[in-house]
Amino acid sequence: DAGVIQSPRHEVTEMGQEVTLRCKPISGHDYLFWYRQTMMRGLELLIYFNNNVPIDDSGMPEDRFSAKMPNASFSTLKIQPSEPRDSAVYFCASSLEAGGPNTQYFGPGTRLTVL
Amino acid sequence: AQTVTQSQPEMSVQEAETVTLSCTYDTSESDYYLFWYKQPPSRQMILVIRQEAYKQQNATENRFSVNFQKAAKSFSLKISDSQLGDAAMYFCAYRINFGNEKLTFGTGTRLTIIP
User: Fold this and answer.
1) Percent of chain B scored above 70 by pLDDT?
2) Among residues 12-51 of chain A, which lie with CB inside 8 Å of chain B?
3) Where are the beta strands (DSSP E) in chain B?
4) Is CB count within 10 Å lower at the N or C end of chain A?
5) 8 Å CB contact of B33 and A101
6) Which of A43, A59, A99 is nearest residue B105 as measured by Cβ atoms?
7) How many Cβ atoms from other residues are within 10 Å of residue A64's Cβ?
8) pLDDT at position B12
9) % of chain A beyond a pLDDT of 90
10) Nearest to A59 by CA among A36, A25, A91, A26
């Protein structure tokens, strides 16, 4: 399997611009997660989906952030408008099922820089 | 709320020696999983080992083993015969067994291997 695929790997944008990050989970995985990693806050969950339905979005920082999963093989995280404090590495992860020993497999991350 | 604490921001070990990374956590739950993830310079998050709270036997994966002390809420990672490829950030993470798939991460320990 190709693993979790994220694009782009790097994104540099200017404040105020819209940014869209993309994720393709591992085929057959029912759960998809978006995490953000910063020096100040570490790794934190933003949102996760089960069977394309958002389950917990309590980690989404504010209304400028939105996430969608239109089908089982694709998800987007959008920031509009972007701000310098959004600069971070954004990870997508997927897992087969809920609970138990099910492992979350992470993608390579997207490093976002907002100037 | 669950918290995960890694009190060692940095550790170093001589190649071929053994090193132990510390992790403590706080939870009121009794049924949960604990994980160690490795993040090398490539940025990819890789699962190293996991432990179910109800299992008394400590998990092992080749050169990696854990010391799980449930009463003390401690979950340390031991790396034996350290290799240059073990150099990375190591993150301890917690997840309840069922009900919410969120992984709560510690702040990480940077491990350096000295040749």
Assistant:
1) 100
2) 31, 33, 35, 42-45, 48, 50
3) 3-5, 10-14, 19-21, 24-26, 32-39, 46-52, 60-61, 64-69, 74-79, 88-96, 104-105, 109-114
4) N
5) yes
6) A43
7) 15
8) 97
9) 86
10) A36
